[in-house]
Amino acid sequence: MRSPDPSRRRFLTLTASAASLTALGLPAGAAAASPAARPAREPDFGPNVFVYDPGTPVEEIQSTLDRLFTAQERNEMGFDRYAVLFKPGRYEVDARLGYYTTVAGLGAHPDDVEIHGAVRVVGQPDPNSPAGISALTNFWRSAENLAVTPTDWSNQWAVSQASPMRRVHVKGVLWLEPGNGGYSSGGYIADSKVDGITINGSQQQWLTRDSELGGEWTNGVWNQVFSGVIGAPAQGFPDPPYTTLPTSPVTREKPYLFVDARGAWRVAVPRLRRNTAGTTWATGGAPVPSLPLSAFFLARPTDSAKRINAELARGRHLLLTPGVYHLDRALRVRRPNTVVLGLGMPSLVPDRGDAALRIEDVDGVRIAGVLVDAGPVESPVLVEVGTRHCHRSHATNPISLQDVFFRIGGPYAGRAVTSLVVHSRHTLIDNIWAWRGDHGRAGTIGWTVNTAATGVIVNGDDVTAYGLFVEHYQRWQTIWNGERGRTVFYQSELPYDPPSQAAWRSPTGNGWASYKVADHVRTHEAWGLGVYSYFNQGVDIRCDRGIEAPRRAGVRFHDAITVFLDGSGGIERTINDVGMPVVGSYGTSTVISYP
């Protein structure tokens, strides 16, 4: 069945009624202006955003893409950020993405922007990989809201963490590895469709959520998770290593920028959905509410936290243009339904020990597309959602965090006790990578240098997480204190660098479990978890268990794996006292169901 024609798709996106917007907690002004309204002038996103239309010479577009890739291909710990945006139409270009680069369409529907060529990520030379190439450090880049017709045999997307593909239609084969079996370490696709086969290859773990696969998903290493995916392979963990949920319990897709039929710039704010499968943009989809870009403050990296907070206090939404924002105080989101949208992987850096972002316990806040770097003065927390002991229900209009990435060390010798703390009930966590760096610029990495105890703490009840990547923190990676929590896909490496067993011992034994469910929790459920060890200090370090949780009927785990990658020592058990040791040499231990 064909999708509606592009003009009708754009009309559907624009005609959400004032009543429906009010029901969503959005102002009636979020609906489109009347057809007679004049198009808004082109927004000024600054020098690092490139906007193209079909009339732009292809040589100009390709020259920009090539120049950005050359600059960003090896710029892993650099400070430049870029976005390349395409208005509706057809383009014959080869877009290779380096670090901190977003390529996105500006249509109301992914098929409104047709890329004939590629939007791709390639592998990097890696002498430690048997193939001589890997994607292990292909982080911090994204493709969104467009269609790709590969003119080669496939569209290659060889990435690891923090490189989402959202709202993309691949009209052919999708290839997720760097080639020849080169290493690759987990990624994320949502609200997308692949017409051909998907070649997973060497990808260790992967989450595909609310999407459609028209062809076979081939291969898998440790755990491939599918949540609400039409055409997903059948449940098979551990052989084949597929964890398949027929529907996703509760979702809301990431906001996205688009240009409407009259040339006005808007930000779509998709609705909350429950028990879903497939994309939001298939035939028959409901109109997507949207906000005029004029309701947003377009921040620049030169804007102070005081200025940005003043705009938020006025009731404006926030669009962060590409760059690095050094903050002398936290950005504060106090109003319901505020949208904070990053363009081109902008970074927030709290320089004086405050948080980067604090969100009040209010309905409907959406935070999306932001990288948070710990600063030189230790922050107790980098992002805090809600306040301690808050109990307000947000079941019909939750707070959401999507493509929000944390980094302790790398470009700076940063410090933070905890990266993300979630107090608010019903919060949606959708693709988070919290990373205490294991490599970076000289002087920024070390056991006593880039210190961080815990990546994620969930105190709120009824929180749902999809794509929780938490790695290398010095104590528990994730602590779940709230009731009725759900995690769909969890990937975690333990810290590489404990100097001794004595320096890395928890209240419950040797090492610190990665995923900790508090003893008082009565109900919790998680699917598709992987915890890995690589202790590289030449010391025999042991972790008693990868996952630690109360043993009771209401606390359930499905399809968990622990892996010895390399180095010394290892993990003794997978969940509590269940599972086999993976110690001293490569090995895996799987637990299909617990308890």
UniProtKB/TrEMBL annotation:
Keywords: Signal. The keyword Acyltransferase does not apply. PROSITE patterns: TAT (PS51318). Residues 1-32 form the signal peptide. InterPro entries: Pectin_lyas_fold, Pectin_lyase_fold/virulence, SACTE_4363, TAT_signal. This is Adenylyl cyclase. It comes from Micromonospora chalcea.
